[in-house]
Here is the input.
Amino acid sequence: MSPNHRLSAFNTTIFAEMSALAAATDAINLGQGFPDTDGPPEIREAAVCAIREGRGNQYPPGPGIPELRQSIAHHQFHWYGLSYDPEAEVLVTAGATEALAAALLALVEPGDEVLVLEPYYDSYAACIALAGGTRVPVTLHAGADGFTLDLDELRAAVTRHTKVILLNTPHNPTGTVLARDELSAIAELACEHDLLVISDEVYEHLVYGNRQHLPIATLPGMRERTLTISSSGKTFSFTGWKVGWVTGTPELVAEVRSVKQFLTYVSSGPFQYAIAEALRLPDTYFKELRDELAGKRDLMVTGLREAGFTVLPPRGTYFVTADIRPLAAAGVPQCEDGPAFCRSLPERSGVVAIPNSVFYDSTEGAPFVRFAFCKRRDTLDKAVRRLRNLGR
Here is the structure.
């Protein structure tokens, strides 16, 4: 039997490969984006309490438990002024990954084109392929201050076959946070060409400095054509619980729900009760999380620069991208080839990173690698010390 040709280009993910390499070499894993500490203890205890009380141990409601859907609606209104009906406009999913898969399978027909910001999270490509769509990358270009979107390139990428703009801000892996003027231009483009927008906003609370996260659904004409996706994993440091959600109009959410019911049906029963409480934590929790990660970002940026990398500072997420080419001057090999560099880095320095090139269709990502800084400070200090020995 021949395999599904739509997935012929997709094998083991780079995250699984590099995490296995970290385990095999006892290296510090700054590749895969998961914290090495748990989130708030009261939220962990809320999950334990739900299990003990028998809440969620059997199938929860297909759209998600009412308490969580209400908390998601409250969160969207509290932070962004977006009003959603928890009964018809909120859907709970098995993490943002399922939300993305269900949304793309629901909205994309064979032959439809989907615009994605390149570099893109690897599941985007696989899900578009599963839907029979065509991926059209629009590259974020590297510069001294990070990565930027060329709006003229985005406009030029739209054709009569374009159906969806798949947006990601704050953006993984570059750390770009799109500004209001950029989002306004994207919104105008979507309205002009009658396009749908799927907006992946899982890093919504991890934004630093004077930049703020702005959901595109808040802009004129966009609420009715946008599916907004987020999840609890990044904000509350419980990535293994896999609790995500979709918000949008009743019509769009119903389309996603019709697919989701044949993927996982339901998931994460007791954890849904805990995340319902987490989303109602005081604003101080979100500020303290952001401040803590901003400090870790600065630690990592400084350490990578001292190690000889050129660093493209992130405005959001918990990843930092580094250019490996300057290391060639110190005699470090494979400084034009991100994958080869990352595969040899654990043996040379005892640190694991992810090559950005796996997130590109073009060759622009070849010299870039991504480090995660969502780890304990002592872990980051140790990793930075190891990396400083690269050229010695």
Remarks:
- The mean pLDDT is 95.
- The chain has 13 helices and 14 strands.
